């Protein structure tokens, strides 16, 4: 992270200057560094401390995050952050509510799914998170939504299909046709076996187990961060997403996926096999690019094109194996 005084001049400079002045007036200590990390997320260094400031659309969302992370800590899950109050009053600026998060000094090496050891370590941390949240998830059932895999995948497919007039200029029609066939087969199977993804006991689902939400701190310990997408539901929904995240690193190999203990019981279930076939990552990334109008920028589309095409033959083989297994 490259720190500069005030701002690194990305985005709307005038807005960032106003925001910096506002934060400066509200913090109890003078701000020495103010660095945008991504949209509505900032690195702030004062004379004595470092913080992350994060913006939310509503005060309710902010308070939910503050409450949830406090509950996590109180219930025994220590491997995350807390929200703190080094300010004179709540932060609200031009329609956005801001929370202040304690800073976790990162390790020199970022966490990724490129090694078996890291995948296992991430799974163990996720399992610990689920065990802790299972004890108090019932208190959050009125505060957060229930996981809905069918609804989520149906919506993602619908948006992808609506984006086809744009996608046809970027991706070969044969690829698009085949991916849509995978998605339909998957959704039909999930819908027919949907009760598997609705069974109690419930936990609180993290909802976004991307590698960047596992943060290795300076001491080497792994932490879980960013709980914006938490829901209530069976742990299999997080494990399904985790499998989808690591399969590209495993070259879409059943044998290598089966080596990880948490997946062994799930790979015997038809519902889980159907769900693995859904091209969730490809649909998600293209839908996001088009929503943000970034598909017109080659620098933005390069990664998603590689995600779509580079392992396509491996994904096809994986899909064909799935079809045999569910029979």
Automatic annotation (TrEMBL):
Give yes or no: UniProt keyword Transferase.
Answer: yes
GO MF assignments: transferase activity
Looking up InterPro entries in the UniProt record yields:
CotS-like, Kinase-like_dom_sf
Question: Single GO cellular component annotation?
Answer: endospore-forming forespore
Keyword field: Transferase
Query: Which protein, by its recorded name, is this?
Result: Aminoglycoside phosphotransferase
Q: Source species, please?
A: Bacillus salipaludis
Taxonomy, top ranks, is: Bacteria, Bacillati, Bacillota, Bacilli, Bacillales
């Amino acid at each position: 992270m490259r720190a500069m005084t005030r701002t690194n001049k990305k985005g709307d400079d005038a807005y960032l200057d106003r925001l910096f002045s506002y934060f400066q007036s509200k913090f109890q200590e003078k701000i020495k560094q103010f660095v945008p990390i991504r949209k509505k997320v900032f690195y702030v260094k004062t004379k004595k401390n470092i913080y992350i400031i994060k913006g939310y659309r509503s005060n309710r969302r902010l308070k939910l995050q503050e409450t949830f992370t406090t509950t996590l800590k109180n219930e025994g899950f220590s491997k995350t952050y807390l929200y703190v109050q080094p300010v004179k009053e709540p932060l609200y600026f031009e329609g956005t509510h801001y929370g202040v998060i304690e800073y976790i000094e990162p390790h020199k090496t970022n966490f990724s799914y490129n090694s078996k050891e890291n995948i296992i370590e991430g799974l163990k941390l996720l399992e610990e998170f689920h065990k802790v949240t299972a004890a108090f998830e019932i208190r959050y059932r009125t505060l957060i939504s229930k996981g809905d895999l069918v609804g989520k995948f149906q919506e993602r497919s619908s948006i992808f299909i609506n984006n086809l007039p744009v996608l046809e200029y970027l991706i070969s029609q044969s690829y698009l046709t085949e991916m849509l066939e995978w998605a339909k087969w998957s959704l039909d199977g999930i819908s027919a076996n949907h009760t598997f993804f609705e069974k109690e006991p419930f936990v609180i689902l993290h909802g976004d187990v991307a590698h960047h939400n596992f943060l290795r701190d300076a001491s080497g310990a792994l932490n879980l961060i960013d709980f914006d997408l938490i829901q209530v539901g069976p742990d299999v929904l997080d494990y399904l997403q985790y499998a989808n995240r690591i399969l590209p690193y495993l070259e879409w190999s059943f044998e290598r996926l089966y080596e990880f203990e948490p997946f062994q019981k799930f790979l015997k279930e038809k519902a889980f096999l159907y769900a693995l076939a859904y091209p969730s990552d490809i649909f998600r990334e293209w839908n996001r690019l088009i929503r943000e109008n970034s598909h017109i920028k080659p620098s933005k589309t390069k990664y998603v094109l590689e995600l779509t095409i580079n392992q396509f033959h491996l994904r096809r083989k994986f899909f064909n194996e799935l079809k045999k297994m569910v029979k």
